[in-house]
Amino acid sequence: MTTLRLAEVTSDNVGAACNLSVAPHQEHYVAPVARSLAEAYTQPDVAWPRLVYAGDDLVGFVMAALDPPCPIDYFRCGVWRLNIAAEHQKKGYGKFAVEAVLAEARRRGNESATVLWVPGEHSPEPFYLRLGFEPTGQLHEGEVVARIRL
Amino acid sequence: MTTLRLVEITVDNVDDACDLKVAKPQRDYVASVARSLAEAYVQPDIAWPRLVYAGKKLVGFVMAAFDPDNPTDYYRSYLWRLNIAAKHQKKGYGRFAVEAVLAEARRREAESVTVSWMPGKHSPQPFYLRLGFKPTGEIDEDGEIVGRIQL
Fold it and tell me: What range(s) does the N-acetyltransferase domain occupy (chain B) (predicted)?
């Protein structure tokens, strides 16, 4: 089995990170990596962006938001963005990335983590339900809020 | 005359910044704002990104690199990116943005500022030459012409 690992975003890999493309039907559901890193630029203490490598191949990007004082409780700790490269999907890399966020959340003493998704065809909803996230019943700007206990 | 000003990138304006689009023929010549801010994220002490507002309207983006220790001398005080919104071009906003970078470079006691551009139709070459940048004769690693202005 190929070794999976997380890497921080650096000057050497940011170009490749920005070129990472999800499958076309997923583009409606997740911001491009460049946009996520632009947001990270404005909140470097909240954003926790990481690249996912399978061996030497860049296969994905995940960004957590870790913001304990946020007034909106479901933005205090969660998966903010997840982009798996179109040609590397269905291999368990997304699960690996989410579990890495959950591990980081635990390390920081959180008791739960959240994720939000836009409902619809090709939504990541079934993926997150399989991982154990449960809808809280809340909606945020049309997105379903879900939570997992750690 | 509309008041022009520079603004730092924040949580409140980053979406508008990323939505800023240059004219189509210019898209081969300059990276998107999101891409530039992604690069700024990995080099926050070097990148100096600012938004240009005309009154309350976001009209452009400029990013300098201030990296006095860079081994490549033309990257030490460098006009890295300039994006003026398609519908706000030809109004002097680009000149304002460049002059703001030159002022910041002076404040940091740089003696010159560089810029680099791809030659070709729709290249910003005539714009930078008009502002006083002069080709140094160097071509950077991406095949771009390096221009320099003394401060």
Answer: 9-151
